[in-house]
Amino acid sequence: MHGPRLRSATALVVALLAVFGGLQPVAQVSAQAAPKASVLLNGADVSWLPTIEQDGSKFFDAKSKRVDPLVLMKNAGLSVARVRLWVTPPNEHGSLAEVLALAKRIKAAKLQLVLDIHFSDWWADPGHQATPATWSSMNQEQLVQQVSNYTTSVLTRLARQGTSPTWVQVGNEIANGLLWPTGKLNKWSSAEFTIMNSLLNAAIAAVKNSSSHPKVMIHLETGGDLGKTEGWFTNAFANGLTRPDAIGLSYYPQWSGSLDVIAANVKNVVEKFDLPVAIAETAYLNSEKSSNRQLFDAATNRLVSIAQSPSGQAAYASKISSVLRTSAGTKALGVWWWEGISPNTSKLRDSFDPAQISNSSLVTGSGKANAAMTALGKASR
User: Fold this and answer.
1) Where are the alpha helices (H) located in the chain, listed in sequence order?
2) Which helix or strand (DSSP H or E) is residue 277 part of?
């Protein structure tokens, strides 16, 4: 067989041509043709920002000049601000009016808006996906139409003021379904997925048909569960889910396990479904001590070799970005911190909800960008 001899002769000819004909050696051509590492759209959820500012918190740049914290994010190299939307919340926080105002600030800071529609009046997550009170008497057909109308109305309002989102999450952490009980997944039957899909497809169509045509993301909380992630999308697509533009996964060490777990999950999603992936929610502690109740437990949140300290939090921000980029390749979308901004008033009350993330946010106790915010920005490039 002549393969090895032929390859040797070919290599010799190419080398001679490189010397006498001005051609570049094969190795050099290959090196120049290698694709660049993907740029990540890293960012943070800023939904609590209006609440925090209303309580009196202020933010400053490195020179102690007061600044909008969204500008701090932009200056640190972040490019995305994520905002949750509730249908009829108990107060103004999370309302459409607040989201519209915050969207203007996000645009002014030259950040991209990710709109996280919960399709609920309050927190939507794996254990809570309550149908909005004013929709609760609707049957499936009526809910489908209401989801379409509501999504269209929201995006129209945002478009009118020139602040259309880049991405829209249709539901928040919906591995167990949404708009319960109608869209709940109990037995993961074909019938259940078909009903859930009718609701999701109505939202997806409304996003796609809106004037600014944002991209659609399906967001699951299953960053630590490869089997559930694959099973959910396999069943959803088999039963008629309209293909989204990307998949978002929540990953918190406290509930999701090691970085190896999320790496394998992301890699599998890309290979199985050929869709871009974002770490749509993540966070890590910058301290193990606090006088306030914290959402993340220092004892169970800790990762091996990454300290829960300012430098450790920064190292985590860099590492999770690297994990996403390595696992998803060119389909790595970005890492979105939950939440980016915490209060810094002189006395943090335990009853004040945003105080729960004072040890995991991307700002210091003096209202400045911390090392992790800077690291997350640098890791995007």
Assistant:
1) 3-20, 26-33, 49-54, 69-75, 96-108, 140-160, 190-209, 226-238, 253-256, 259-273, 298-301, 310-328, 371-379
2) strand 277-282
Positive or negative, the CA dihedral 116, 119, 124, 126 is negative
Enter the tokens of residue 207. Answer: 């996003």
Which tens digits make up the pLDDT trace of 241-281?
999 999 999 999 999 999 999 999 999 999 999 999 999 99
Torsion of CA 245, 251, 257, 263, to 10 degrees: 40
* pTM (predicted TM-score): 0.89
pLDDT in tens, 32-87: 333 445 799 999 999 999 999 999 999 999 999 999 999 999 999 999 999 999 99
DSSP 353: G
Amino acid letter for position 19: V
- In sequence order, which residues have a C-beta less than 8 Å from that of residue 209 and are 6 or more positions away? 152
Q: Say if CB 194 and CB 242 are below 8 A apart.
A: no
The CATH fold assigned to 40-379 is TIM Barrel (3.20.20)
Q: Is the N-terminal amide bond of 181 cis, ω within 30° of 0?
A: yes
Fill in the amino acid letter for 369.
A
- With residues binned 3-state (H G I as helix, E B as strand, rest as coil), the percentages for the chain, rounded to 5, are 45, 15, 40
From residue 88, give the alpha-carbon distance in Å to each of 93, 95, 122, 135, 140.
10, 7, 8, 10, 20
